[in-house]
Amino acid sequence: MDAGALVFDVFGTVVDWRAGVAREAARLLGPDVDAAAFADAWRARYQPSMEEVRSGRRPFVPLDALHRESLPAALAEVGGGPVADDVAGELVLAWHRLDPWPDSVPGLARLRRRHLLAPLSNGGVRLQVDLARHGGLPWDTVLGAEVVGRYKPDPEVYDSAPRFLALPPSRVCLVAAHVDDLAAARERGLRTAYVHRPAEFGGDPVPPVTDPAADLSVGSLEELADALGC
């Protein structure tokens, strides 16, 4: 695969959102709230909140704002009551402090030897910068939803990567752990690499081991580096 650049889904692909959110929830909410169930309940509101923007029913706002709006309902679902504004703010910032999967940083470091690297995430620019600084993610630049004011799978998000990186779509590869994300990228002419992350949702459900439609299917970013000769 002749890819000049690799762009990455981040939540679930590069970082472990569930463990990170649960860790911060346990710290901030205490033992009376099931922290893992809360992380799942909050994540379940991720796509519906973005759909309000994608549908045109509301203007674009960064993901932090959507997370803040969906927080009360997620808390209520797991029996948590209202929280003070400062606690709510810290919970939203939990998404800025997610740890990379163990293979992410070494894999990215190897991939960067031969490819431009950037996130292509629904997370905002500051969120991506904070994740990079927190976890040592070696991005060359930050791309994604907030850069174009659209949320994936809007075609404009995928189209923006080759445009900003000055490459044809066929030389840009989206790396993701989600087959729907990869399918949307292929529709725009990007190459695709699937990463199997069996623990993303705590093992239930377990995502498919491969994406037969992807150019590559791997079990880690280090395996991806192997496959690309890095």
TrEMBL record:
Top-level taxon: Bacteria
InterPro entries associated with the record: 2-HAD, HAD-like_sf, HAD-SF_hydro_IA, HAD_sf, PGP-like_dom2, S-2-haloacid_dehalogenase
UniProt keyword annotation of Mitochondrion present: no
Keyword tags: Hydrolase
Listed Gene3D superfamilies: HAD superfamily/HAD-like (3.40.50.1000), Putative phosphatase, domain 2 (1.10.150.240)
Any one GO molecular-function label of the UniProt entry: hydrolase activity, acting on acid halide bonds, in C-halide compounds
Family statement drawn from the similarity comment of this UniProt entry: Belongs to the HAD-like hydrolase superfamily. S-2-haloalkanoic acid dehalogenase family.
Protein name: 2-haloacid dehalogenase
Species, as recorded: Geodermatophilus nigrescens
Organism phylogeny: Bacteria, Bacillati, Actinomycetota, Actinomycetes, Geodermatophilales
